[in-house]
Amino acid sequence: MSMTDLLHAEDIKKAVGAFTAVDSFDHKKFFQMVGLKKKSPEDVKKVFHILDKDKSGFIEEEELGFILKGFSPDARDLSVKETKTLLAAGDKDGDGKIGADGSCI
Length: 105
Prior knowledge:
Blueprint: H1 3-6, H2 9-18, H3 27-33, H4 41-51, E1 58-60, H5 61-64, H6 67-71, H7 80-90, E2 97-99
Helix pairs in contact: 2-3
């Protein structure tokens, strides 16, 4: 399954394009722009599993830095600051990773 099986390619393109500047990434706006906010919990979990590159059941800090590439291969990497902000938003138990509940979406 690919990201475009779950989300519209045009929405992904617009969302990735809106955050091309370093330190401009806003995860709430991004997830809304790609259409994740309107998806069922099951579809959000499918997106999560696409982004979970090592298939550990979690998205760790290293994977978060490349999260935009999970939506579009030519997207930029997140800055350290952006990565830490996203991790803080989704890491509810302080273990340094985000679980499949998609709590930052």
